[in-house]
Amino acid sequence: MIALFLEYLLFPLTFLYRFLFWWDKKRTKAVKLDNSIVWSVGNLSVGGTGKTPFTLYLIDLALKNIGLEVYVLSRGYGGNKSNEGMEVLPTSKPENSGDEPYLIKKNYPESRVLIGRNRYQSFEKYATKSESLKFVLLDDGFQHHAILRDHDFVLIDAENGLGNGRVFPSGKLRESEDALSRANTVVFTKVKDVNRYKVNALKDRLEKKYPQLDFFHFHYLPVCFTNLMGQTLSLDEMKYRDVYLFSGIANPESFRDTVKSYCRTILGERIFTDHYNYTETDLANLYSELKSGTVLLCTEKDFVKLTHLQNINKYSGIYYMVMKGSLEEEELFISKLLSKVTVNT
């Protein structure tokens, strides 16, 4: 009842939010990146829908299948170099680049990861100056109006869908559902048997309203658990372990729901703000709450921000959940990817 009251109370502010969004789009002239195929990965809703896992998946497919130099353009949210821009290197620090760009570079060092509030300027400054064609992924780019793109992916969380259908702040949408008219592909993320009926119902409705859309289903599942020393616990081994969770991500509920299927008991949880930069004091406090034999567990996005801390070797008991993404329709997706790249070349 309280949530419903707040929705109605905040509803008038949605008009202001939508006006500001419209004005930003109207006054921004989109530019084309030279010698580049640009694909955008984004969403309609506020919060975590799995953009980084899906971006990692696209990078993997691109590197294996299309033979072009792969770039990722990100704002670098949470990084202190976001305003001036930078190229993320294996030796970079996540507090400079932001956690997600650093995570992408860590997983795919052969990709070029560029950050900056002005992504076009970052690309012009750091991209290879040549006539060779480049494959560019625009991270969190659906609402980014400054760069023209050849394809727009919109990710929708299978469990939460489009929420109450309202725009922030009375709902969780960044812009109204009608924005899907400018998209090419909808990818339902975090698809499980228990939420399949929700996905099917929403897909049927969107197919009728937006016939230009393709639809795919993305799974992102644990494969093992790894600590700082590279030691791993298998999924079977974790079933007999108690865990204490900590995370600084947009959707900690999703992390918790995933973990509970693979451990014996979740003894507790500490939630930090999204993109939180951890300190050694934070780790010491977390350790002080642990019972003997308990695994201290976080996401990979959190884990990459721990590795640069001083005395981190003292905390080898911290594990992160290693995940792997896959599409149900991967073969079809790859054929479409190759055909679109061929058309653009």
Task: Tell me the CATH architecture of the largest domain.
Answer: 3-Layer(aba) Sandwich
Number of strands: 13
CATH fold-level assignment of the largest domain: Rossmann fold
Q: What helical percentage do the residues reach?
A: 25-40%
Number of helices: 11
Give the full name of the CATH homologous superfamily of the largest domain: P-loop containing nucleotide triphosphate hydrolases
Percent in strands: 15-25%
The tally of domains stands at 2
Broad shape: globular
Summarize the structure in short.
By secondary structure, the chain is an alpha/beta fold. The chain is 34% helix and 24% strand.
Overview of this structure, please?
- The chain is an alpha/beta fold.
- It folds into 2 domains: 2-219 and 326-344, 3-Layer(aba) Sandwich (Rossmann fold), CATH 3.40.50.300; 232-315.
- The protein has 11 helices and 13 strands.
- The chain has helices at 2-27, 51-65, 94-97, 99-107, 119-126, 196-209, 235-238, 252-259, 280-288, 300-303, 330-344, and strands spanning 36-43, 69-74, 86-88, 112-115, 134-139, 151-157, 185-189, 214-227, 232-233, 242-247, 265-271, 295-299, 318-327.
- Strands 1, 2, 3, 4, 5, 6, 7, 8, 9, 10, 11, 12 and 13 form a 13-stranded mixed sheet that branches.
- Helix 6 (196-209) links the parallel strand 7 and strand 8.
- The radius of gyration is 21 Å and the shape is globular.
